[in-house]
Amino acid sequence: QTRISCKDVPAETLYDVLHDTRYRKKWDSNMIETYDIGRLTVNADVGYYSWKCPSPLKNRDFVTLRSWLPLGNDYMIINYSVKHPKYPPRKDFVRAVSLQTGYLIKANGDSACVLYYLTQVDPRGSLPKWVVNRVSQFVAPKAMKKIYKAGLKYPEWKRKHDPGYKPWVYPEQNTLPNVSLAELSVQHADSLENIDETGLTEDHLSTSDHEA
Fold first, then answer.
1. In this structure, are residues 205 and 135 in contact, taking their beta carbons and an 8 Å threshold?
2. In the prediction, which pLDDT does 207 show?
3. Which residues of the chain have pLDDT under 70?
4. Which end of the chain is more exposed for a tag (fewer CB within 10 A), N or C?
5. Is the peptide bond preceding residue 56 cis, with omega within 30 degrees of 0?
6. Per-domain residue ranges for the chain?
7. 72: burial class by Cβ within 10 Å (0-12, 13-18, 19+)?
8. DSSP letters along 103-168, please?
9. Angle, CA of 17, 80 and 50, to the nearest 5°
10. What is the model's pLDDT at position 49?
11. For 2-164, which CATH superfamily applies?
């Protein structure tokens, strides 16, 4: 769990940043690929995300059900991992599991907000202790700072990139295929292959990934 105060970024702007998959490529340097698979309701969809892990660890990916809710001037986005028959685990990734991950954006006046982030993730694989420590101490706080900086730059970027297109705000713009809840099931970690990475040492971490 972590939080960051975002000065000069309205809550609604940060909400757009977290939704906008096109913009994510601009600020999320850990992302390999992300896309929306389909929609369940006007405020819930299923999506795919793959994450570049520091070498020599294997890269991870997720298939998640995400839902969102405006709460007056505040916003909430939560997700958890699901199985989708057309998106099974891939050989080139370790399929990780989001037990529950959420963002809460609380307005702090008209032009500032506070972002809260809580995640329970099973990365699968028997990871060395140093990896877990690195993620908790460095990766999550750095990711929050990236989101804040992305929020500062988003209005200018969005003005040049289909400014009226926000299907998370205007459901009638959503052209994703419908997904039935019956097609999905909760992704349980114990049904996935376990990759043993405990033998890796921090000395072998690729230097190019230290900023992850």
1. no
2. 35
3. 125-138, 189-212
4. N
5. yes
6. 2-164
7. exposed
8. EEEEE-SSSEEEEEEEEEEE--SB--HHHHHHIIIIIHHHHHHHHHHHHHHHHHHHHHS-TT--TT
9. 60
10. 96
11. START domain (3.30.530.20)
| Maximum CA extent, the chain | 51
Q: For 52-93, what is each residue's pLDDT tens digit?
A: 887 777 899 999 999 999 999 999 999 999 999 999 999 989
* Nearest alpha-carbon partner for 29 in 188, 145, 131: 145
Q: In terms of DSSP H, where are the helices of 30-108?
A: none
The pair phi, psi for residue 119, each rounded to 5°, is -140, 140
Distance CA 27, CA 166 (A): 18
101 in Cβ contact with 85 (< 8 Å): no
| Structure confidence at residue 117 (pLDDT) | 93
Token look-up 């694989």 returns: 125
pLDDT, residue 186, reads: 83
Q: Is the pTM of this model over 0.90?
A: no
**Cα gap 88→99, rounded to integer Å:** 17
